[in-house]
Specification:
Mean pLDDT is 84; it is low at 6-23 and 229-235. It is globular and about 50 Å long. It has 235 residues and is mostly helical. The chain is built from nine helices and no strands.
């Protein structure tokens, strides 16, 4: 019994260690991946089966359309256009070129999360084929499917990767907290813009956030061993 307890303790210590391939980073990555994936499929199931979340979707979208404000509409149109596929792709390319020499592994991670995430989102849209919201006088008129939100997914993986990079480089918890808070605010702002402008339902945005977090966790976990080897070779 004592021998088993020591083996279990040793196993847990190894999983929480910052060193090694199967240490803390893999443990956290897998936990986030599993939790975010479960949340995504829970939302997706509710959407497919017309659970109460779809009623909340319709009521919230209708309320926002009725209470639209001209200045807020202009501001959110700018937010949503900046965070379109072209905008995020260009920003990723610029950051990738700028950081290629000094942070090659992070450049690869950002490229994988953004471009791979766009492909994943396209596949899921065509899997669920959920229509977008319909209004008689829409602010935006869009074609294609709604679930999950592409803008929100792209913002999640783009800002999420930059946030993890900033947190890994920050020397104190205040800067780390600021990076996480700013990232959450930007992702939420993009998501809200899509609901407000009538491009997506609430569940489209929440599903995209969960999808993006799961994909981000997968990419960071997969690339971590290479990033560790790269840093070791440079030292």
């Amino acid at each position: 019994m004592e021998h088993r307890s020591k083996k279990l303790l040793k196993f847990l210590q190894a999983r929480l260690s910052r060193e090694g391939f199967l240490g803390l980073y893999l443990t956290l990555g897998l936990l986030v991946l599993l939790a975010a994936s479960w949340l995504f499929w829970a939302i997706a199931e509710d959407v497919v089966t017309d659970d109460p979340i779809t009623i909340v979707d319709a009521r919230l979208s209708a309320w926002l359309q009725v209470h639209a404000n001209a200045r807020l509409t202009v501001f959110l149109l700018i937010i949503t256009r900046v965070h379109g596929t072209i905008g995020i792709f260009l920003a990723t390319a610029v950051i990738g070129v700028y950081c290629w020499r000094r942070h090659r592994s992070w450049t690869f991670t950002l490229t994988l999360t953004v471009y791979g995430g766009a492909l994943l989102n396209l596949l899921l849209k065509n899997l669920f084929v959920r229509p977008r919201p319909y209004f008689q006088h829409p602010i935006l008129t869009l074609t294609g499917y709604g679930f999950p939100s592409g803008h929100t997914m792209m913002a999640t993986v783009f800002y999420g990767t930059l946030c993890v990079f900033a947190v890994s480089r920050a020397r104190d918890w205040k800067r780390r907290g600021l990076a996480v808070s700013l990232t959450a605010l930007l992702i939420a702002l993009v998501g809200f813009s899509r609901i407000y402008l009538g491009a997506h339902y609430l569940s489209d945005v929440l599903g995209a956030m969960a999808e993006g977090l799961a994909w981000l966790a997968f990419c960071l976990t997969a690339v971590h061993p290479w990033r560790g080897n790269t840093m070791s070779n440079r030292s």
